[in-house]
Structure to design on (573 residues):
């Protein structure tokens, strides 16, 4: 029997599936042929099958390195149900229990052995590995090995060395859902993959309609309420940035949605019995969280308002919409959360609500977010730069006027054919649809505004005497973006006047321009590298790498605004 036929047979026998999904068969065949692989596939695409099927066909044991102890038991139970002998070793077991599992594996009674990366450092495990034939090492969440990845884990750095020390080198298969070019290169180098077959698949989900809406913070809750009220039979997830917000929004939805439904004449006897929305976050008791999850999964409550704690391991295929009440900090996070819509393949909508203050908040959080005590100062700095880069890409998603499907798949490193993409007409790739492909945009010339902002960033670094002359060399470090806008708009606010900023030559220069426009332009200039936000104790506006362009005689600067969006229902054409 060929490897391919054997693999298909195992897929059918153990999992009951008739065919491989895109990408799976190539990876399975390579592993069976003894070649290392790197599989980059989104969550839910079916990475596990890619190493589980070869593990059933190869002699000896396959070791699966996975960072999440909590998911090991689920995986092992599911494999046992399918008739595949699997086990895990982790800190929840006594040393005796661990010894028993290792003995079984050595005797060939375990085909897949799940361990956390830290385990590889223990002497006991090294002894085991030295005397047990290991055919395959599968590394799940392989991006954790990269300092450029979102979730760097220093314990992953030991994997390459562990493999190199084995008496016989097994096939090594690495999997991840996140891999930009740089992370991919790191995975190959750090794990010591040999001429690996790299497969990147399926980041575009053509049943999802992507929608980006810029909305003031105070209008967001009303937008969400009205969306939910007009989709009464659908189930949805609303992601918020903080625990407090989830509770406040769930409570407000439970009042307003019913009012809106009554106003539109919907009969709601049945709905009055159950709330419309339930909050979910990591600060709730496990019982309350389980209850919320059950209510949502069983359709008793149609909407869950959650932090990013919600989702991992929750299997609900008919989620019709995912609304982000705030901008997440990376495309990876957004894609993973939004991707919980439409798992059943039916048309679903992913809406991101954002505004400039989301950006300010996210930038501020970057500075305070030191989450890994094991990192050296240098690693922390790399981590910070990396997070900033990811945040900029997320901001780019909010601002782009290009096809949102294309933006996202390109970000994940898939090549997308270029398409002239006239505005108001869909990009050929945009099968599920997106706001940008359904919109026409107005272009506004904001060259003068941009110049004035740039000048002001310079001006506020000096002090001025009563005649408006700079008194000395640069005095200040500069100001935050809110202050820059206030100065340009000629604000009479106490802190502006008290600091003598009304004597600065830029004061009041944009008094006639709406405040929101000044903010928008300033923010876009930061994204474009004309300005930069220097993150110290307080975020301060400084000059970016392209700053000199603003004083060039031919400088021209535009912003785009959606002029009209054709309303179109979600889904495939
Ligand atoms: P990932 O690890 O990429 O997040 P999983 O391996 O957990 O994804 O697979 C997601 C779901 O898809 C699982 O329910 C799995 O059984 C199912 N699946 C995987 N491969 C196939 C296939 N070839 N045909 C049908 N369903 C599949």
């Amino acid at each position: 029997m060929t490897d391919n036929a054997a693999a298909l047979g195992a897929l059918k026998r153990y999992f009951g599936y008739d065919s491989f999904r895109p990408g799976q068969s190539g990876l399975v065949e390579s592993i069976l042929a003894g070649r290392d692989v790197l599989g980059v596939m989104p969550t839910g695409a079916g990475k596990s099958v890619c190493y589980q099927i070869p593990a059933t066909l190869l002699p000896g044991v396959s070791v699966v390195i996975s960072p999440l102890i909590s998911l090991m038991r689920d995986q092992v139970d599911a494999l046992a149900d399918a008739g595949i002998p699997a086990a895990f070793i982790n800190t929840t077991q006594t040393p005796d229990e661990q010894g028993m599992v290792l003995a079984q594996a050595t005797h060939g009674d375990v085909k897949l052995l799940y361990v956390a990366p830290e385990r590889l450092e223990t002497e006991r495990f090294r002894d085991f590995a030295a005397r047990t034939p290991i055919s395959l090492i599968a590394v799940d969440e392989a991006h954790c090995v990269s300092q450029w990845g979102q979730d760097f884990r220093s314990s992953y750095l030991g994997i390459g060395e562990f493999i190199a020390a084995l008496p016989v080198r097994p096939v090594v298969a690495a999997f991840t859902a996140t891999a930009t070019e740089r992370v991919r290169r790191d995975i190959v180098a750090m794990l010591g993959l040999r001429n690996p077959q790299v497969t990147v698949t399926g980041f575009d989900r053509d049943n999802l309609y992507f929608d980006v809406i810029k909305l003031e913070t105070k209008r967001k809750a009303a937008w969400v309420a009205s969306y939910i009220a007009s989709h009464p039979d659908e189930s949805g997830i609303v992601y918020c940035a903080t625990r407090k917000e989830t509770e406040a929004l769930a409570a407000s939805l439970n009042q307003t949605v019913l009012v809106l439904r009554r106003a539109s004449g919907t009969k709601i006897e049945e709905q009055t019995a159950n709330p419309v929305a339930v909050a979910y976050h990591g600060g709730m008791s496990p019982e309350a969280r389980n209850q919320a999850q059950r209510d949502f999964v069983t359709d008793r409550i149609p909407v869950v308002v959650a932090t990013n704690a919600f989702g991992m391991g929750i299997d609900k295929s008919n989620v019709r919409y995912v609304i982000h009440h705030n901008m997440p900090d990376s495309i990876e996070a957004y894609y993973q959360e939004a991707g919980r819509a439409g798992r059943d393949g039916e048309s679903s909508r992913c809406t991101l609500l954002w505004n400039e203050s989301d950006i300010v908040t996210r930038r501020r959080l970057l500075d305070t977010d030191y989450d890994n005590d094991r990192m050296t100062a240098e690693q922390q700095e790399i981590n910070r730069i990396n997070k900033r880069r990811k945040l900029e890409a997320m901001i780019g998603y909010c601002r782009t006027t290009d096809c949102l499907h294309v933006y996202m798949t390109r970000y994940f490193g898939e090549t997308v054919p270029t398409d002239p993409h006239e505005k108001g007409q869909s990009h050929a790739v945009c099968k599920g649809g997106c706001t940008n492909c359904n919109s026409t945009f107005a272009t506004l010339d904001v060259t003068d505004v941009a110049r004035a902002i740039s000048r002001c960033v310079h001006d506020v670094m000096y002090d001025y005497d009563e005649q408006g002359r700079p008194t000395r060399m640069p005095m200040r470090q500069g100001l935050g973006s809110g202050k820059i806008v206030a100065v340009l708009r000629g604000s009479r606010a106490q802190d502006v006047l008290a600091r003598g900023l009304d004597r600065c030559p830029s004061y009041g220069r944009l008094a006639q321009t709406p405040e929101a426009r000044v903010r928008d332009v300033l923010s876009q200039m930061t994204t474009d590298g004309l300005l930069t936000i220097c993150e110290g104790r307080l975020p301060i506006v400084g000059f970016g790498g392209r700053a000199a362009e603003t004083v060039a005689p031919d400088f021209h600067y535009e912003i785009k605004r959606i002029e009209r969006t054709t309303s179109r229902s979600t889904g495939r054409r």
Observations:
- The pocket of adenosine-5'-diphosphate is lined by residues 15, 17, 20-21, 24, 41, 43-49 (CB under 6 Å).
